[in-house]
TrEMBL record, chain A:
Keywords tagged on the record: Membrane, Transmembrane, Transmembrane helix
InterPro entries cross-referenced by the UniProt entry: Permease_MalE (IPR030802)
Membrane-crossing segments per the record: 43-63, 134-159, 179-204, 216-239
Organism field: Hymenobacter gummosus
One GO term describing the cellular component: ATP-binding cassette (ABC) transporter complex
GO molecular function, one term: phospholipid transporter activity
Keyword Cell inner membrane: no
Keyword Magnesium attached: no
Pfam family, one: MlaE
Protein known as: ABC transporter permease
From TrEMBL, chain B:
Keyword annotations: ATP-binding, Nucleotide-binding, Transport
PROSITE patterns: ABC_TRANSPORTER_1 (PS00211), ABC_TRANSPORTER_2 (PS50893)
Ranges annotated as spanning the membrane: none
Full protein name: ATP-binding cassette domain-containing protein
Stretches assigned to the ABC transporter domain: 2-239
Entries under Pfam families matching the protein: ABC_tran
Taxonomic superkingdom: Bacteria
Gene Ontology MF: a single term: ATP binding
Organism: Hymenobacter gummosus
Length: 243, 268
């Protein structure tokens, strides 16, 4: 365990030793940001909208006390979405989609000797292949989390009003009630940390793949599992330290 | 010239190279010959820096490569072109971009037009002038090898390494790839090292041959000398091919190819 962690740190350090030119890195980072971001918009949108809708319906179902105003549903959907559901669930979804893609891509490059080809050319393969993926994830995860927040709250609105659990006016009242802007900052900080964890862990697993196609599949699965565990651990640590 | 001196390499308790010493000369096709598991590919990986030898040194034209400063190793690496066994073309790039890639990365001062001219020249040199827009997945095995060679020579390499360039190819395509490597080596006067266990390559292009067996260099010489070598392991390796046995027998005694092909290999 300690050995693996040490190797992981050395892996991260190697990205900055003999790093590639800024122009090359910038171009590669934009490519990766597009790959990670644009390709994930659909799945993030679907998941976020339905989570918002389900959260709203379930809160409405449990909120039977007539002394509690119906606008509380909107308030609770907002708080749950911003503090937890949007950053954490989105990152877990992205761990599955982006993490497996990063690990699988790098693993395939490893077993087909493409990474060796880069090394023989004198190119720092971690700087060229891994750093842009991590930067791309760090750029796009917060944007996807913001999108998830908006769609989740919108999903809650639609579910709440269409099911007759409350009026649109009540939901909006709840959304605007005692809003704390720091919660948005907290969610974005979480998304940055999760982006780093997902991309770095997945890249590490893929980069050191040994064997053949079977091992690439194993590396992808391990990358997703470890990324999700890391997200949940970091989520707890961040909640304890920043809230 | 590449000089290998007393190179040892082990993985765990298993020694793979047990003190290999040899020289690969400039302007020649240097073949490293040997059966599977004799340490050929490990030797190649040690030479190009993908593996670090446990003991021993590797020198490129007088400059020590092993355990030297990173900058010096990088400088040497940038003069290396390598053709990998499975070609190792970048899946996400088309043929043109694959060949252009080392130029983009290693020669930042080169203009886009200069790069385009160089890529077109290299693709033409390997007979693939119209393949630029194709993706690697659309190419045959032989075409992939050609693109790999074009990518290797694009930045004007001084040293060319080929890891089993004939693997997975039919005999005719193998000969064409061998001829291409041979022509390029002599045309540009580069130091070429080819890992192979293909006796056709030995006979076709082996200017200088090094025979490895169980991690040791047992013999080196030219293609004209190899059929008369007196090393038992080498003889066994060479004459396991009925075609080579036939050629040898016909050369010495006369006779027909069919007659000799029927004989079990231990008779030779």
């Amino acid at each position: 365990m300690v050995k693996v962690f040490g190797q992981f740190l050395l892996f991260l350090q190697s990205m900055f030793v003999r790093s590639e030119r800024v122009k090359v890195l910038w171009r590669r980072t934009l490519d990766e940001a597009v790959n990670i971001g644009i390709d994930s918009v659909f799945i993030v949108s679907i998941v976020a909208a339905f989570i918002g809708a389900v959260t709203c319906v379930q809160i409405a179902y449990n909120l039977t006390n007539p002394f509690i105003p119906r606008s509380t549903i909107g308030y609770m959907v907002r708080e749950m979405t911003i503090l937890e559901l949007a950053p954490t669930i989105t990152s877990i979804v992205l761990a599955g989609k982006v993490g497996s893609s990063i690990a699988g891509g790098l693993g395939t490059m490893r077993i087909t000797e493409q990474i060796d080809a880069l090394e023989v050319m004198g190119i720092n393969s971690t700087s060229y292949l891994v750093l842009p993926r991590i930067l791309g994830a760090i750029i796009t995860f917060p944007l996807l989390v913001i999108l998830a927040m908006v769609l989740s709250i919108l999903g809650g609105y639609l579910a709440g009003t269409l099911s007759g659990a409350m009026t649109g006016q009540e939901y909006i009242e709840g959304i605007r009630d005692t809003f704390i802007p720091y919660n948005i900052a907290f969610a974005l900080i979480k998304s940055l940390v999760f982006a780093f964890l997902v991309s770095a862990i997945s890249a590490y697993r893929g980069f050191y793949t040994e064997g053949g196609a079977l091992e690439v599949g194993t590396a992808s699965t391990t990358a997703v599992t470890h990324s999700i565990i890391a997200i949940l651990l970091a989520d707890y640590v961040l909640a304890q330290t920043l809230l | 010239m590449i000089e290998i001196h007393n190179v040892h390499k082990s993985f765990g308790d298993a020694p793979i190279l047990k003190g290999v010493t040899c020289t690969f000369e400039t302007g020649k096709c240097n073949l490293v010959l040997g059966g599977s598991g004799t340490g050929k590919s490990v030797l190649l990986k040690c030479i190009v820096g993908l593996l670090k030898p446990d003991i021993g040194s590797i020198t490129f034209d007088g400059t020590i490569f092993t355990n030297n400063k990173v900058e010096i190793r990088q400088e040497i690496r940038r003069q290396i072109g390598m053709l990998f066994q499975a070609s190792a073309l970048f899946d996400s790039m088309n043929v043109f971009e694959n060949v252009e890639f080392p130029l983009q990365m290693l020669t930042p001062g080169m203009s886009r037009e200069e790069r385009r001219d160089r890529v077109e020249f290299c693709l033409k040199r390997v007979g693939l002038e119209n393949a630029g827009p194709k993706m690697p997945s659309e190419l045959s095995g032989g075409m992939k090898k050609r693109v790999g060679i074009a990518r290797a020579i694009a930045p004007n390499c001084t040293y060319l390494f080929c890891d089993e360039p004939n693997s997975g190819l039919d005999p005719l395509t193998s000969i064409k790839i061998d001829e291409l490597i041979y022509e390029i080596t002599h045309e540009y006067n580069i130091t070429t090292v080819i890992i192979t266990h293909d006796m056709n390559s030995v006979v076709e292009i082996g200017d200088h041959i090094v025979f490895l067996h169980k991690g040791l260099k047992l013999w080196d010489g030219t293609k004209d000398e190899i059929l008369n070598a007196q090393v038992p392991e080498l003889k066994e390796f060479i004459f396991s091919s009925s075609l080579v046995r036939a050629a040898k027998r016909i050369e010495q005694e006369g006779g027909s190819l069919e007659e000799i092909r029927q004989e079990p290999s231990q008779d030779i």
